[in-house]
Every structure is written in structure tokens, then in C-alpha cells.
């Protein structure tokens, strides 16, 4: 195993609800960053384009937008007090594929008559089942409560999951009132801003510092360097001529666990003629396998025609040959073959140009015909 890189949390999705029209009464429920869905649930209603509230009122949210563009998303029409407990509010839908240590945060304004108490819930199965998380409460009305935050780092089922859901719901049991002392009313509203879900990219093996190869005579010399390793048993060197079908050609012992750079070398003494593709298969002590970078190396003289000079036929040794084309030195096409061999017996003695066409490019060689 190659040691993971420490990386910072990244925003998976965020809603600031703003539209750049200098009118904070208009807004959008499309994410300002990332991909996700936000919607009102449990019978509550919320706008999607017009009827938004000001994000800068009553002290304002943490949205850095200019006042004229700072929109907040209002949610209203809550159930009657004492009924439909923990059903009405908003839902956030997001994929956390590739991420762990999920965190949810938001700014929320409570009107005087809105529900003072709320519960944050999460679902790991697309909303089929919900689990209560943290409770929040307002101690004043017409006030923004900013940066309400919950880390779900301990809830591993939310990691790397395409079906994550969160809900912020009104708690309507127990005679809850808005914190300013105003009586609860179903027409009270919550106003949201800067609703954000973040995560940390899952640890991935560190890419090799380098992996290179070069032809040395009739061999290919390979060299690679790692930054650090953990429980690295060995590397398997693999080779292919088509960049797809790899076979093992050798093994190089790993250095176990190391926090310093390590250099490795391997020599392929019998490469195929033409282009050779090499891949590293890294194997942990417990048998876990990672496939690392692929490189290509062209062996010297791989596409030179032979024999040369020739009298009847010539061929090229290397690579996946698509076609051979024979030209005069003036560029006139004199012959073509769709294999790695071409007939030249009909040509008078002299010098010619043989072009070899591959899937990855073409090569030109000078050919001498003799009788």
C-alpha cells in the first residue's frame, strides 16, 4: 500500500440561492457549487424563482454576496402545533461518492412565529429510512443563526454513498414557541442561506513520483520512484504490445513500510520488437493489489525493414503494423501491404522509402533493392 496524501475538505454542494440580478427577492434553488437537490418537504412550501427573502436582514447570513444579490430561501406553511412532528421542513439530496468525513452546515433565520426547535436527520439509503441526529433551537425570533454545523465523520455509512439525504425538520411536540416569545403560527417561516455539504476525498494511493523506461541496446531499462510506502510486499512488472493484454515478466521486492523516497529498477532483456507497454502491479503484504502507471518504450530499430538491402520481400519486426507503403524517393506510391511484409521483386535496383503505419503513429525507413 502506498501511503495516502492528507487533503482538505472540499465542498460537494452549496446553495447560496442568489441570482445576479440586483434583486434579492428573486433567487434559485440550483446549487451555486457542486451537484445536489434541495426541496421543501412535509407540506411546507418554498419558492423556486421569485418570492425569496433578504439574506442580509436582521444581521444577515454569512453569504458574502452584495446586499442587492443576497437572497435567502424562505420555507413556510408548517403543520399545526402538536401534529406531524418531525415531518415538515427541507431535504438535501447529495452523492458523496469518493468522499468521507461528511459535514453539513447552514445559516437559518427564524421568524417570530416559526418553529423554534428543529432536528437534523440523515438517511443512507435514499430516504427509505431516517435517523435523528442533532437538535437545534432558536432563542430569538427574526434572527439569523449562522453556521449551524454537524460533522458526520463517525457515520461511515454516509461515506462514498450516492444516496445520501439530510432533512432539517420542525419539532412540533411539547408546545414549542419561537424564541422571541411570539406564539407559534403555521405561517411562520424559516429562511435558509449557505446550505453546504462538504467531504474529504477518500485516501487514494500516492501516484508514483516517476516511472520511466528507455531502450538500451536490445534491452529496456525501467526505473520508478515512490514517495512513501506501507506494507509494500513487491512490484510485478507487466508488459504488453497492445497496451491492453499485459503479462507478468518479473518481480521486484518492495521496501515494506517507508516514509522516504525509494528507487527501483528492472531490466527487460527480451522486449518485443517495436513498442512495448509496461505496467506496475503493486502488491501489499495482505495480497491487496493496485495497478499503477502505464508507459511505452520503443525498442531501437524496431521498424527498420529487413533484410536491407533486399531482393524479393522485406518485413518489419515491431509493433501492431496496420500497413506498409512503398514509395519512390520522389514520393510516388509503388506498393502497399496490410501486413508486416511487402513484395519488392518487381522493382528495379535502387533506393526507396518504406513507410510503416501503426495504431500509434508512423515511421519512414530507407530501403535498398538489389538484384
From TrEMBL:
Q: Which domain of life is it from?
A: Bacteria
Task: Please list the residue ranges that the record marks as compositionally biased, kind Low complexity.
Answer: 26-51
Please list where the region (Disordered) is annotated. 17-77
Please report the name of this protein according to its UniProt entry. Answer: Por secretion system C-terminal sorting domain-containing protein
